[in-house]
Structure prediction request, 244 residues.
Amino acid sequence: MSTDHDMLDVTVQRGSADHVHHDRFQVPARDNQTVLDVVTWIQQMADPSLSYRYACRVGMCGSCAMMVNGVPRWTCRTHVKKVTVNGKLSLAPLRNLPVIKDLAADMDPFFDKWVAAEARHHPTRGRLEEFDPIKPDARDRVEANLGIECINCGICYAACDTVAGNPDYLGPAALQRAWTLLNDSRDGDRPGILSAVSGKGGCHNCHSMGSCAQYCPNGLNPMRAIAGLKRETVKAALRGKRDA
Prediction:
């Protein structure tokens, strides 16, 4: 059980891309303390200028994600005792993204990749028309369901070494969403999705290292989705040559 004299040695990355430095804080250790609790204590009790992002605090929004001892995590669901090394914590903004300030990363490039991957629903009916019926046990629906719990937190994007080495790579989350839509019978632009994910920065850039699946807090497997996209884009290319 923690006492009032137990302290955590916390190093926080500060500044933005133009000027990065690190500050150290001594933070009281508490039982059942999350990393987000630590960041909040620093902002409220030690340095009110510290910038970070959070909303729900219960693992629903994903906005509190950051690097914790070099690993991307939801800080609201990460207990300090599970990640400290000799009582030390190192905190930084999500990697592979520009930094707005301190622990707040700019998510715009992440969502721009979703647009580039055509990872958005292409409706087949108007808003005043009835919905297409969906059979829950249909093979394509079962496959689509495997990825729908993505909450766009960016953990997989930060974990991906392919993203780190190739700024054009669309990334695991955008490609998984594209795969979900490809398996959604209500989506009306299957050729457009396949074209988008087979081009520069598309699914064939994935090296199948599996960091996306390893670190996803919701237990999703973008690597499975990307493998599916690889198969379908190859099939589409072969059909195009056959029909030419």
User: Anything to note?
Assistant: The chain has a mean pLDDT of 94. The domain at 108-243 is CATH 1.10.1060.10 (Fumarate Reductase Iron-sulfur Protein; Chain B, domain 2). Strands lie at 7-16, 19-28, 65-68, 71-74, 88-92, 99-101, 104-105. The chain has ten helices and seven strands.
